[in-house]
Amino acid sequence: MANSTGRPITPLVLRPDERSYLERQVRRHRVARSLSERCRIILRCAQGIPSKTVAAELGVHEHTVGKWRRRFLKDRVEGLLDEARPGRPRTIDDDQIAAVIERTLRSTPADATHWSIRSMAGATGFSHTTIRRIWTAFGLQPHRSQTFKLSSDPLFVDKVRDIVGLYLSPPTRALVLSVDEKSQIQALDREQPVLPMMPGIPERRTSAYVRHGTTSLFAALDVASGFVIGKCYRRHRATEFLDFLKQIDARLPEALDVHIIMDNYATHKTAMIKAWLARRPRYHVHFTPTSASWINQVERWFAELTRKQLRRGVHTSIHQLETDIRAFIARHNEHPKPYKWTKSADEILSAVKRFCQRAQNTLCSEL
Fold first, then answer.
1. Pairing of strands 283-287, 209-222
2. Taken in order 331, 336, 337, 338, is the CA torsion positive or negative?
3. How far, in Å, CA of 302 to CA of 35, rounded?
4. Helices then strands (H, E): number in the chain?
């Protein structure tokens, strides 16, 4: 035994709740590195590993392992936390901090739509570092803004449960296809050549561009496998959508039912489309709620197409643009990977409910 001739060591035994807490701190990404390291030390010591071995494994001094072992044995989990350190007395009291927070939340400067650190510092008389510390402590970021749109669909709840149910528990002997179109994709060419990336210098391109026409991409994503069926059309009408449905039908096994998830765009609801679907009872259509395209998984694939191929692409013709899109689809289908849906319908609806309640409370407080 490594410690058979040395000083006897008090056994370190963890309770289930203590072990759970320590393992949770080790897994967390936003925990302080010092606390994570201390938790690792205690977990290793609890396995009966000598301090010397633990120190070598974690890259710390043996005295450090002994220090936190003693602290844990004395104060348990609380002993791993940093003790309060004396510092300069506060020069700003709680009322002054509350006034800064209130002013940040309830007012705007005369010459801007939101406060900046220095404009708030000038208005309150505090230093900009003080304002920064207050805003950081309370999570205030006036420079940031987000957009939102709530669906007004009266069947929102039913449609969410229907589509999420297809994602989480797809029917047997059936395909679930997420279908949509990305319209008006522009073939853009820069007025001047793109300057390539160099050490210390990013790729540079002119903001001015030349348009060479547009195309529309119709795509169907197999939710189970991630495989994509796509085709480009120069126009975006019900005729093109019907042709795309025929392309899908020709590539699918006849023995399987097909569940199609798509939005409420008028092109998808013409009499011609309805008649084609009515003649094929194996097709089942599931419409997404109004203003809720986020629930259609093919939109995630469209975002990947935009980020990887279109945003920084240079195309001198529609033909070149469509060739690149087809090549991207082919490369994607070589190793398709499905997108994993993680939220249940109840979790989504609860989040929407909480957001609506916060919005209502904000409006009531302003009135």
1. unpaired
2. positive
3. 41
4. 13, 5
Beta bridge partners of 287: 262
The pLDDT value recorded for residue 25 is 86
- The letter for the amino acid at 144 is R
Q: Can you give the pLDDT at residue 2?
A: 45
Task: Report residue 247's pLDDT band, with 50, 70 and 90 as the boundaries.
Answer: very high
CA–CA distance, 83 with 203 (Å, rounded to integer): 49
Task: List CB contacts of 176: < 8 A, sequence separation 6 or more.
Answer: 166, 167, 170, 222, 223, 224, 259, 261
Instruction: Taking residues 267-271, report their average pLDDT.
Output: 90
Q: Angle CA(173)–CA(178)–CA(179) in degrees, nearest 5?
A: 125
Burial class (CB in 10 A: 0-12, 13-18, 19+), 75: exposed
β 283-287/228-233 pair status: unpaired
In angstroms, the CA 113 to CA 107 distance is: 9
pLDDT of residue 81: 83
pLDDT above 90 covers a percentage of the chain that reads 51
How many residues comprise the chain? Answer: 367
Which residue, 7, 6, 81, 73, is CA-closest to 38? 81
Helices 128-137, 117-124: inter-axial angle, 10-degree rounding: 110
Can you list the alpha helix ranges (DSSP code H) found in the chain?
Answer: 16-27, 33-45, 51-58, 62-75, 94-106, 117-124, 128-137, 156-168, 238-251, 271-278, 298-305, 318-334, 345-366
Give the integer Cα–Cα distance in Å for 134 and 101: 8
pTM to 2 decimals? 0.69
pLDDT digits (tens, 9 = 90+) for 163-202: 999 999 888 889 999 999 999 999 988 888 888 888 989 9
CA 201 to chain centre: 29
Residue 210 in tokens: 């030349």
How many angstroms separate the CA atoms of 94 and 131, rounded? 14
Reading across the β-sheet that carries 228-233, which strands appear in turn?
Answer: 228-233, 209-222, 174-190, 257-262, 283-287
